[in-house]
Structures are given as C-alpha cells and as structure tokens.
C-alpha cells in the first residue's frame, strides 16, 4: 500500500517533478499549466468554403457533449461526472484518480447567418470534429432615400 502523509496533498510527486524540471530546464510555458486539463484543446483549419474545428475530448462519450448555437455563438459543453461511474468491487478502492471529472465549456463566434443545420458534428476516438461553412454576409442593397421638398 502507498501511504502519503496528508500534509503533502494529493500531488506530492507531480509538484516535486514539476519543480525538478523547472530547476534544470527553466520555467515552462502554458503547456504545463496545472489547469490545462480543464481546457478543450482545439485546432481550427480553414479551407476555401469551411472551417474545420477539432476539439480534443478524451474520455467523454457522445452523450456527455452538448453543442448550442445562440446569436452566432457556438458553445461546446462537456460534462463528465465521476459519481455516475459504476464502482467495480473486483478492482478495489481507488487510491489515486487522475482522469478528468467535471465540466468544461468553450465558445466560438461563427456568425449570425449560420443555423444549427449548417454546422456538421462528428465525435470519434475522443475528438469532436465540427465543420462550419463559410457564409458570406448578406450585402444590403443601399436604398436611395429622398428628401421631400416643401412648397
């Protein structure tokens, strides 16, 4: 069994190794942020007619993910609740849990001319792929406005 004194918290080894790395390799950038696992890592690619958005959501199921389009803003929400996971009596009690549990949300402005039917979504192997078509904004035809002449 592994006994760690409670004064060190749950991440004694992580903190020690992070500090060790900083001493030898210098302070690292945002890629080693403790809150990094709560951010949806996203790649956005542009083609002539659409944007492709790849969002990493490892460990989530399709039912854990919700997409909402409101006033031109596409919001991706994902909720993973550890309480709903079934406990397996054969594996014993959990000593340490590092997999993400909680909720995360990310929003992108996609334009007010798009509807829910325009955006295509696919979830496969922990990656949510969205295809967002480019739509040209409707150009308003300038209307000629006349001024009435009295007299």
- Mean pLDDT across the residues is 75
Briefly note the CATH topology name.
Immunoglobulin-like
- SS field, number of helical segments: 1
Contiguous low-pLDDT stretches (5 residues minimum) are: 27-36
| Overall spatial form | elongated
Q: How many structurally independent domains?
A: 1
Q: Helix- and strand-based class?
A: mainly beta
In the sheet with the most strands, the strands line up as: 1-2-7-6
Largest sheet: 4 strands, antiparallel
Please report the distance between the alpha carbons of the first and last residues: 100 Å
H/E element sequence: HEEEEEEE
Structural Rg: 24 Å
Q: What's the number of extended β-strand segments?
A: 7
- What is the annotated CATH architecture? Sandwich
**CATH top-level class:** Mainly Beta
Helix content: under 10%
Report the portion of residues in β strands.
25-35%
SSE layout:
Blueprint: H1 12-25, E1 42-46, E2 50-56, E3 65-70, E4 73-80, E5 102-109, E6 120-124, E7 127-133
Antiparallel strand pairs: 1-2, 2-7, 3-4, 4-5, 6-7
Structural write-up:
This protein is mainly beta and 151 residues long. It has a single domain (6-84, 98-133), classed as Immunoglobulin-like. The protein is built from 1 helix and 7 strands, in the order H-E-E-E-E-E-E-E. A hairpin with a 3-residue loop joins strand 1 and strand 2 (50-56). The protein is elongated. The protein starts with 11 loop residues before the first helix and ends in an 18-residue tail after the last strand.
